[in-house]
Write a structure and sequence with these properties.
Number of helices: 23
Distance between the termini: 50 Å
Radius of gyration: 27 Å
CATH class of the largest domain: Alpha Beta
Helix content: 40-55%
Largest sheet: 5 strands, mixed
Length: 607
DNA sequence: GCCGTTTTCGGCCCGACTGTTTTCAGTCG
């Protein structure tokens, strides 16, 4: 039986080779190539194994002919002879120690060489040696380094047990708490989220925050006295302070003067690959970029602007827009900064005009407390509460889509009766709200979220469909079918004329499970041809479709619908996170079906 | 080892912080 490798495992393997080359003082660009390939594979959204099966390894950025041939050997034989050669004369323990924060390749190599670490117990042994003061005896190591290593081991263990990446809304609210505290400091002019949070990535590791100030010392002092700070990790004089909060989350604060605040926002928003590409682009025009500004590298360069700081010999930028403008680029929204062609698009002034939360006109995936008698979870808010809330959000329509009544507990007729009853209630509310409001009242649609059974059969008797305005189908069981069977299952379900939406299409649960396997090309083609819509589900653990698949879908012309899947009215506010996913997928208003006004939306529903 | 709307050869992002090494290397983002 051949061993299979996850993307994470392959990335780790490539990083080990990079680490080995670092110890061996190999060409640093070769090392970078391995690290790039590892990062690319780690962030890839298809399984590398699947890409290999389909002979599409060349689609991975950073994977060229050499690494591709090593992966080929890996999938065929379970090992790579060349990699074994590279690692042969290095202590095995060193690769284990790399997982400890603060220990890089050279330190790991030295520790593994100097200390006797038993296989399988490397980290425990290292910890014991450290406690006995043995690490400080190694040349080049001191008391402080020994202490740092011991603390690194503690952090490593915590990471092993519980620390997962935060879900976007969790990180968002945590960042706002910190920003609220910072804004009470008189020395703080303004603060902004940076990094993956500003780019609205679905999961966030550490939170980075930018602070604009003319008195960094005062801000650093203020922040280290934040009541929720457990430990200060790093503390600079001017530009950085890094802490761990009581909840174990890390916050990095970056400080900058008003003159260069725009340059810093750009620099620390990332992504890393966007910044690398941007700096390469700048270098071609003889400019060098940093968080302080832009340096002109040649005499003959022609440039513009009056923000030159002759002491520092750089151009400074208060606003990010002027930083990009200086490079000849349109301002790039943070969500697009993933090195997927946004720089070229910005040069050519053809960046997409991204969808915004205010464009949304309705929410079609909501669970009310109507007694639908489902075997899944019911909603907690009444239809009236939901309607009021949606009116407040400026929506023109709302679709109630509880789970289907359980098919094992009811006879067909009973199910039909329940659906009919819900329709009657909705008709009545629609009627009375027409009388209540002078303006156009919000329109309530009778929807349903229907399970797709493993065979592809829908969990609702045919006789019930005529009482529905539309339905969503989704998968809640049997996640492990093969890609081919799963694809058939979905297509079969989507074929029914009342089915308009494929809900949370990948089935992934962030931090918990990967999605099931589907042939997306086939799904996209089917949706395009039959006017079916793929959902971006705003549930924090889902955010599904993921952004990369949104990008592929809209490139094909497939329409997307953004729904909150709310079970309580206060969850309707999650819409902005789904919109963020769409924006990261380059979606414009026209790509999103629930930006249409009521009349046009109803036309689409009837198609 | 990868990569290409100025290149299939000749390039390849940038700086802060830390510890201990008296001038810098390692790690990180």
């Amino acid at each position: 039986m051949k061993k299979t490798f996850t993307n994470q495992e392959i990335a780790e393997l490539l990083r080990e080779i990079a680490a080995a080359y670092i110890v061996k003082n190999e060409d640093r660009f070769k090392i970078m190539a391995y690290e790039n390939a590892a990062a690319s594979i780690e962030h890839a959204t298809s399984d590398v194994k699947d890409l290999w099966d389909d002979r599409k390894l060349d689609q991975l950025a950073g994977v060229g002919p050499n690494i591709a041939s090593y992966l080929d050997e890996l999938f065929k034989t379970g090992k790579v002879t060349h990699f074994d050669e590279v690692k042969k004369d290095l202590p095995k323990a060193m690769f284990v120690l790399l997982a400890i924060p603060g220990i890089g390749p050279k330190t790991a190599y030295q520790l593994a060489g100097e200390l006797k670490l038993r296989q399988g117990k490397e980290i425990v042994d290292l910890e014991n040696m450290g406690k006995k003061g043995k690490i400080r005896e190694i040349e080049g190591f001191g008391e402080k380094t020994e202490k740092d290593i011991l603390e690194g081991i503690v952090r490593f263990r915590k990471g092993q047990t519980k620390e997962k990446r935060m879900l976007l809304p969790v990180a968002d609210s945590l960042a706002h708490e910190v920003l609220d505290y910072l804004e009470q400091c008189p020395a703080v002019i303004r603060g902004d989220a940076l990094g993956s949070l500003r780019r609205m990535v679905s999961t966030i590791g550490d939170i980075d925050i930018a602070v604009e100030t003319t008195d960094p010392k005062k801000v650093i002092d203020w922040f280290t006295r934040y009541p929720k700070v457990r430990k200060v990790l790093d503390q600079g004089q001017q530009s950085l302070v890094r802490v761990i909060l009581d909840n174990g989350k890390q916050i990095d604060l970056r400080l900058q003067t008003p003159e260069s605040y725009g340059a810093m926002l750009q620099y620390f928003t990332g992504s890393k690959s966007h910044n690398i590409s941007l700096r390469e682009f700048a270098l071609k025009n003889e400019m060098s970029l940093s968080e302080h500004g832009i340096k002109i590298l040649s005499q003959k360069s022609k440039f513009k602007g009056q923000n030159y700081n002759s002491k520092l010999k750089i151009y400074q930028f208060e606003k990010e827009e002027s930083f990009y403008d200086f490079l000849g680029l349109d301002w790039i929204p943070p969500e697009l900064r993933e090195d997927q062609g946004e720089i070229t698009a910005a040069v050519q002034h053809r960046l997409p005009k991204l969808i915004e939360p205010k464009d949304i006109k309705g929410d079609l995936h909501l669970h009310s407390d109507f007694p639908i008698e489902t075997s899944h979870d019911e909603g907690g808010s009444s239809i009236e509460e939901i309607v009021r809330k949606c009116e407040g959000l400026g929506y023109e329509y709302v679709g109630l889509s509880e789970h289907n009544p359980s098919i094992s507990q009811h006879r067909e007729n009973e199910i039909i009766t329940i659906i009919k009853k819900k329709k009657a209630l909705i008709d009545q509310i629609n009627y009375s709200s027409e009388k209540r409001t002078n303006n156009l009242p919000i329109k309530i649609l009778n929807g349903l979220e229907i399970d797709i059974q493993p065979s592809g059969k829908l969990a609702l008797p045919e006789g019930a469909f005529k009482y529905l305005d539309y339905a969503i189908v989704s998968i809640h069981s049997s996640f492990n079918l093969s890609r081919a069977r799963m694809t058939d299952r979905v297509l079969k379900a989507l074929s029914h004329s009342k089915i308009k939406i494929f809900g949370h299409p990948t089935g992934r649960m962030l931090n918990r499970r990967e999605g099931y396997e589907l042939d997306w090309e086939v799904i996209f083609d089917f949706c395009l041809k039959n006017n079916k819509w793929l959902e971006i589900n705003c549930w924090p653990e889902r955010l599904d479709l993921p952004d990369n698949l949104v990008l592929q879908a809209i490139k094909k012309g497939v329409k997307i619908i953004i729904n909150t899947d709310s079970h309580q009215v206060d969850q309707l506010k999650m819409m902005k996170y789904g919109v963020a996913v769409a924006r990261r997928g380059w979606a414009e208003k026209n790509d999103i079906i629930n930006t249409l006004n009521l009349n046009r939306f109803m036309d689409e529903l009837d198609k």
